[in-house]
């Protein structure tokens, strides 16, 4: 048993729903109790869809459990097929149905439905949403392509067969789905980008695809694995079974988009266009198609240098964000983590490159605590981190699912490709204090309007914790970890201990030490406090006064 | 429930089964919430209580989806997610639960009442949460009361979760035959204060509420207690209160001017308030409420309304919208029909109203499409899809989160229904 207040992912059947709902012509019969239809809201409200998800639930109740629930399953399948006439059917269970073991998939298998049927086995007590989506997508593709499997020993198709066939190369875009982060616009952006390089898109799936489209998957020269969380297993299987090469670079960020294009050209045996050649470590011509490189180089961005950023997201977006932050915006990544256990290895590798240890967890309190301890100045995370950041008074931008309705915007907002980088520049820099304001607040600390922590371009005044009181530096890590302990402590066992340590440290500060600390601009104050305390501990100081603070500052500026 | 329960006053609807002739009973896919959802408002009503669902990731996901942004403010609810180990052995599961509860309470010493909320998974594996609650209550004597109720989808629909939660609290209510008026069912704070004030003006001085604002502030109960149900979904609680000697007052529910007046009148009659006094206090409220209703009535009158089953509030709302706002009722769907608790409202519905109980959502939607009503009351899983088909909707969950009870709120209540229609008229997008 595990106490959970917030879950980054839903149960695996929600992943299966994402596949069914992303596609056309697929129906999903879900053996589930009355009440599990709540999941429809994710699609009708968050994704704002004007259609009901193609899901029929058995919605059994307690009184059905006495009788024949298997019969209910059969009836429901029959009616769903009659009513919706799908081109392929998914049959599966929710967590409760898994316990009563009616084997709906096996029942459907014996029914002669006249449509391809996939029996989904998604262990709800050990796996989660993304795993469920990946497994469903994989099983569906596998079922539909069974008849096309080449005989063992058949040679791999040449990736350049397009040349022999006298046509443009074509690839599949695999992975985009509903409730994924900005998939709608990523697909548009990448399709356009490929078009510019003379590459066609064969099938986009699951988003917008019909079962008939999945049958065309083997006609592509390569598979582009846009979202490994959803399409990783299917791409590997297609590679094994059909010999279709996979492009695994995810084109989020300037460098990653360039890498993606290079990998794609290599895989397709296409000559690398001149504008993708790098000369002497200079960015290639193509990279200047995005405004991010110039925006990031322009003097206005100098103040972004070394901003401490904490990143937590699904693996794909976390890894991409870490690269953009460190190499393209000049931030310092002070924390990197993910809730995607399936891709933990990749996240660990990306963290190691930055000299960090990756945080792999699905406990949001652990993430919040790490965020506070890293003394971050900017948080890039999920919907959840948005709220932790708010509580800690930190600027934040959302970079990954789980998402809320505001992250399915009406405007064009890709994350991928050149335009995606533009969107990223704006949305990550926006929450930070603008440079001029940052300077003026550092110089004049007595303003009645532009108070400590104020970001007037956001029109919201100071972060809640900063404006809350006149007590010395209330928005620091210390205060916030105390707030966390009292407000949200349930699952974070170590916090109580941390608070004790913190209180001991706090008592070290003299009044003039505190006063000096209060003069440090709020967004770095947490860091300065920590450094000073570390310095004091190291030197065995009994008091931390203003002089100790400056000693520490000099010590750490080396 | 028990045969010994004194029946509420029989109403015309009960006496004449032909009044609402063809009750449509349906079974099939039900597009409703489970009772866990009630936690979303109950935890705000009683801030010193914690709601611990014992269930699966699905249950955790449901609450977080339903609670939206609120979950972050200061979580007073959570889910103990069952793992494979718990499924393998109930002994382990019980031990795990005890451990988890102790951890929780150590870190949240301010919790006074802990509700262990049963879910479908916990009920299917027959995890005995009632016994767990007893065991933990004994261990935590005088510190925390541990109660148990079911919010599972297999047992409860949406608001029924509150019914079960209140029922679980009843054994803790002290016994007293003191004369009092007990208002049962969650009310918005401001609405509750307002009702108390009005009852005070009527000379009814002892007015208490269930659920209370603090979980430890439990009202006493006994022969002197007269119960007014503020919410129509409290079947089990109402009957249990009767078993404790309380008298259930029969009245329509306090939605709209008429319903609220009759509801207050039921109490006034029971407490022997002179008619003149009642008129003096309530008439001005009725008058003002009607004035507030008028502009909305202009939008709503003559419009055809279809209500899908959701919260049990459908019948009283249909009564208000037809009688006070002039809407025509195409179909009034309820998740389940408790004729006794609905008697007064049923009697006030137009005689030919089509009622339906239960749901087969695809067939019901066919009826919606065939009837092309002007407005459909439905859940959020159906609202946008219907809008996309050109059918105006009012999403129903808002009704349990808004202050809609009482004469003073009649205008707001009507506004909730008029707004989508006014909006459609405003938008010049084809
Ligand atoms: S207000 Fe600021 S901190 Fe809060 S979510 Fe928006 S950008 Fe992030
Ligand atoms: S319907 Fe059952 S399994 Fe689903 S969320 Fe509600 S209690 Fe949990």
Task: Please characterize this protein's 3D structure.
The complex is a heterodimer of chains A (558) and B (430). Chain A is built from 25 helices and 14 strands. With 558 residues, chain A is of the alpha/beta class. Chain A has helices at 12-22, 40-46, 62-66, 69-84, 95-100, 104-109, 129-145, 161-164, 183-196, 211-214, 228-242, 254-267, 292-297, 315-328, 344-353, 364-373, 383-392, 417-429, 435-443, 464-467, 477-488, 495-506, 511-518, 522-539, 546-556, and strands at 2-4, 26-31, 55-57, 88-93, 117-119, 170-174, 200-205, 222-225, 246-247, 308-313, 332-338, 359-360, 378-381, 396-398. By secondary structure, chain B is α/β, with parallel strands linked by helices. The radius of gyration of chain B is 22 Å and the shape is globular. Chain B contains 18 helices and 14 strands. In chain B, 54% of the residues are buried. Strand 1 (2-4) of chain A pairs antiparallel with strand 3 (77-81) of chain B. The complex binds iron/sulfur cluster (SF4) (2 copies). Residues 386, 389-390, 395-396, 431 of chain A line the site of one iron/sulfur cluster.
Notable traits:
heterodimer, A: 558 residues, alpha/beta, five-stranded parallel β-sheet, four-stranded parallel β-sheet, 25 helices, 14 strands, 46% helix, globular, B: 430 residues, six-stranded parallel β-sheet, binds iron/sulfur cluster
Number of helices of chain A: 25
The residue-averaged pLDDT of chain A reads 88
- The beta-strand count of chain B equals 14
For the largest interface, the chains and their residue counts are:
A-B, 64 and 65 residues
Please tell me how large the radius of gyration of chain A is: 26 Å
Overall morphology of chain B = globular
Heterogens: iron/sulfur cluster
Helix share, percent of chain A = 40-55%
Structural class of chain B: alpha/beta
Termini Cα gap of chain B: 53 Å
Shape of chain A: globular
Mind summarizing the main beta sheet of chain A?
5 strands, parallel
The share of residues in extended strands of chain A comes to 5-15%
Question: How many β strands of chain A by DSSP?
Answer: 14
| Strand percent estimate of chain B | 15-25%
Distance between the termini of chain A: 48 Å
Within the largest sheet of chain A, what's the order of strands? 12-11-10-13-14
Q: How much helix is in the residues of chain B?
A: 40-55%
| Rounded mean pLDDT score of chain B | 92
